[in-house]
Amino acid sequence: MIGASSGIGEQLAQLLRQDGWTTILTGRREELLKKISGEYPDAFNYSVFDVKETAKVEEKLTELADQSGGCDLLIISAGTGDINEQLLFDIEKDIIDTNVSGFTCVADWAYRYFQEQGHGHLAAITSVAGIRGYRGAPAYNATKAYQLSDLEALRQKSNKSKLPIIVTDIRPGFVNTKMAKGEGLFWVASPEKAAKQIMSAIRRKRKVVYITKRWRLIATVLRIVPRFIYERL
């Protein structure tokens, strides 16, 4: 589990435990990972690293997979975003480094690992925000669009190879975590409810799922709104 120290990732970790998985939790905040792991030491181990440090990520993941005897499911829950009306580049760069560079490094490692193993399941938490741009958070929406496209490409690659590698694109709307920022939020799900629907999608090996389910309606509307109208909103 990449990014399991809080929010949706923490809730997913508990559901994986209940399903009988032995899970390695990763994240930047050791105190939180240590607390979660300490409550159920038979179900959890943890490793502290930042996906932005791409020079170290592949080595860490390989080491963790070897230590645990393999990897059948990898969930990418790590991500960041912020409102950036002033277009401050430091904010945009942090988002890009995490949601593009870090994400790609982890996803590509997972696919190569599963390819060599002959099977596996990659599940990644993206966002409904990836469907269209948004003036208040240009880099966030753009990085989420990148993730949607990247996961689609990996599914295509899996289909072409005919290997049983499952790629699940999990697209939440608003979830009550620190990532939910801005005014006029609606249909805000609790992390617990979001995690339950995500686990259901993983168990069913879904390709694309919206969290909560009603956000599929918003996604459809976003797609069909003409550009000349959307750009004036």
Q: How would you characterize the overall build of this protein?
A:
This protein is an alpha/beta fold and 233 residues long. Helix content is 50%, strand content 14%. A four-stranded parallel sheet has the order 3-4-5-6, with helices on both faces. The protein has a two-stranded parallel ribbon with strand order 1-2. α3 runs parallel beside α4 and α4 packs parallel to α5. The protein is globular. It starts with 6 loop residues before the first helix and ends with a helix.
Please report the total strand number as a whole number. 6
- Pattern of helices and strands: HEHEHEHEHEHEHH
Q: Compute the separation of the termini in Å.
A: 37 Å
Question: Helical segment tally?
Answer: 8
Structural class determined from secondary elements: alpha/beta
Largest sheet: 4 strands, parallel
Proportion in β-strands:
5-15%
